[in-house]
Sequence to fold (207 residues):
Amino acid sequence: MPVRVSNLSKRFGDKAVLENLSFELPDRGIAVIEGRSGAGKTTLLNIIMGLTPPDAGVIDGLAGRRVTAVFQENRLLESWSAMKNIRLVCDRAVTDAQIRAHLAEVGLSGEERTPVRVLSGGMKRRVALVRAVIAPGDILVLDEPFKGLDESTRGAAIRYVLRHAAERLVLLVTHDREEALAMNAAVTISLGGDDAWTPPCIWTGSG
Fold:
């Protein structure tokens, strides 16, 4: 079923971050959330994930649906290996061989047992991405998931998401027009506009 956001509002002190926000998302497919810094993109994601309560408004269509996420921070256990960080969120049926295959798809073959603390920033980002994709979920939230990746690695990561999240609703926050185009977004939600680029919008609102 679609996800319907109706009259969503959120303030932090005197600052209105989201105000009377309404839109509808499909049951599956990719939706890009864009807007200038401070427009409320991450706040919107946090409300959808249940991490931040709205001041007003409702979201329908989330009941019973599991959400996995790549946050702006990697939120990995630094002393654990890439394998152990991913294993923490997996179903028991997922094998080590399957985890290795996922890591190989994003260019991390051979790094399965490496402690996260010695990985580069871009490598950590890819571990966080694999963890969110391989975890059981119906909605995949991606808050600038490709930051810190070079062009070729970013392309591999985008193809990886497209391969493995085709049956999910994917919410992507990005400031990069090329990323949005490469992800073939079906819906673009614009929160207050963006000076850098203006994608084809199905829905535009203020935030």
Observations:
- The longest helix spans residues 121-134.
